[in-house]
Structure formats: structure tokens, C-alpha cells
Design a protein that fits this description.
Layout: H1 2-24, H2 33-44, H3 52-59, H4 63-75, E1 79-83, E2 91-95, H5 97-121, H6 123-147
Antiparallel strand pairs: 1-2
């Protein structure tokens, strides 16, 4: 039990150190974290039409907060909400050129930092870390699903 608790403390410490470093150093200067996540999803699936419900499911952002985020992003000219012709109840979310441009600049800044980390760790170690982080994320999701919080 003590080994399990020690491992938990070590993982929690690493998690907090990583999170606080990312938070403190504000990787994205032109957009918020949520804006970045929303633009990333819309950019990656730009050939498809999506709505706020889809974005909520993919990001975990609550519906009320998503509506605030989308309104702010629309005001900045990053995206547009458009009623769908087939079903007037549905509202499509479209990434505009300005939003895509800002997103791509921010993504490049993040990737430059990650490139530097990979260069220092080495490609093999970086791939191993990425695999372990993905395993932690999958395990975390499974724990939340089991507890009915997701």
C-alpha cells in the first residue's frame, strides 16, 4: 500500500509540476486554451460540419460555457455560427480565416516548444513519454466513466 501511495504522490507531483509550468508560462498569447482547443477541432475536421454539442462532447466544456466561448470567438472574428438549411434548429460552427490564422500561429509556437523538448529528450524517449501520457489519460477517462462523472 505504501508503494502505491508513493507512486501516487510522485505522479501527482509530476502532473502538478507540468500543469503549473504550462499555466505559468502562457504558451498561447493570442488566444485562450479553450479557444485553441475549439479551433484545433474545427481545423482538423474542416471538411465536416459541426455544432456546439459536438464541440462540448469533444472538449468536455459545459454547454453554457461553450456558448460563452463561441460568442467571444465570434466577436473576435474567429468563427461564425450559421443556422443549417436542412434543420433550422441546428447551428453549424464555421472556422473563419482569421481564427484559422491565429490558431496556426499559436500551434506553431506550441510545436516549436515541443520540438525543443523532443530534441532534448531524444525521439525515442519522447515517444515513450507520449505513450505513457496517453495511457494516463485513457486510465483517467476510465476512472471518471466508472464514477459517472463524465
Amino acid at each position: 500500500m505504501e508503494d502505491l501511495r508513493a507512486a501516487s504522490e510522485k505522479l501527482a507531483g509530476a502532473w502538478l509540476a507540468l500543469s503549473s509550468n504550462v499555466w505559468r508560462n502562457r504558451l498561447m498569447e493570442e488566444m485562450t486554451f479553450h479557444e485553441f482547443c475549439i479551433c484545433r477541432l474545427l481545423h482538423q475536421s474542416r471538411k465536416e460540419t459541426h455544432n456546439a454539442t459536438w464541440l462540448c462532447r469533444r472538449t468536455g466544456i459545459l454547454r453554457s460555457q461553450m456558448n460563452r466561448e463561441l460568442g467571444a470567438m465570434e466577436a473576435k472574428g474567429y468563427l461564425r455560427r450559421l443556422r443549417m438549411e436542412e434543420d433550422r434548429r441546428q447551428v453549424a460552427i464555421l472556422l473563419l480565416p482569421k481564427g484559422e490564422s491565429v490558431y496556426l500561429r499559436q500551434r506553431e509556437a506550441v510545436l516549436q516548444l515541443v520540438d525543443e523538448i523532443v530534441a532534448r529528450l531524444g525521439a525515442e524517449n519522447a515517444a515513450a513519454v507520449a505513450g505513457q501520457v496517453q495511457l494516463v489519460v485513457q486510465t483517467l477517462q476510465a476512472v471518471f466513466e466508472q464514477k459517472g462523472k463524465e
